[in-house]
C-alpha cells in the first residue's frame, strides 16, 4: 500500500489530472474507498462529475504557480489530458510543477504505437521525452486504442453505413476500465517509487474490423458489414458527417494504423499488474450492444 510522505496526517495524497475523462473517472471510482487524500485537478471550479468526497484543486495553465500550489503535499500524480493543440505544453507544465512540488511518482497516460507524425501520438512522444530528462519516478501507460472508439460506429451500424479505411488489419483494442485498473496499481505501488518504466497495455487478442462486424451481427441477430473505403473516401465521409478536419484526420490516421496492424501486439501487462485478465472487445460489445440497435 502506498505510504504517505508525512504531509497529510498520515494519509497518502494522490492527485488526478483528467479526473472527468474516461480513464480518470474510472480511476477515481476505484480509489475513492481507499484510505487516501484524493484530489481532482480541474480547470473548471464548477465541475460536478467527481464524487462528493473527492477534493477539488483548481488549476490555470496560464498561471504556473497555480499548478505547484495544487500539487503541494502530493505523493503521486496521475496525468491525463484531452487531445488538444495545448496538450504538450499543458502536460509538460504540470510535470514540471510536480517536480517542483516534490511529487514522488507520476503515472502518465500515453499511447501505444510506432514513431509517428500523427496527433496525438507525436505529442505523447514529446511529453515522454521531457519526462525522461527529469529526476522523478514515473510509470508511462501506453494503451492500444480504447475499445469504446467503436461507439462512434453505433449510428452507422444502425443505418447500415458503417465502414472505414482499416481494411483487414488487426488491432488489439483495450477496455478503459483495464487501463484505469493498471493506473490504480501503479499509483498504489510502493515497491518501485523511483523506477522509470513504461507499460504497453492491450486486450487479450487482436481483431479486425470485419471480425468486429461479425460479432455485432451475432449480438444483433442481423448481418452487419464493414464497408471498405480508401483513406480519402473515409475522410470525406467524416467531414460530411460534421466532424472538423482535426478529428477527421485523427480518425483516418487510426484507420491507417489498424490497416497496417501497427497496434496488433498482445501483452500480458494488464494481468501481471492487476491480477485479472483484460476484458475483450467481445465483452465490451455485449455490454454496449444497445448503442448499435436501430
From TrEMBL:
Sequence ranges assigned to domain NAD(P)-binding in this UniProt record: 18-189
InterPro entries: Ergot_Alk_Oxidoreductase, NAD(P)-bd_dom, NAD(P)-bd_dom_sf
Pfam families xref list: NAD_binding_10 (PF13460)
Domain of life where this protein originates: Bacteria
Stated name of the protein: SDR family oxidoreductase
Record lineage: Bacteria, Pseudomonadati, Pseudomonadota, Alphaproteobacteria, Hyphomicrobiales
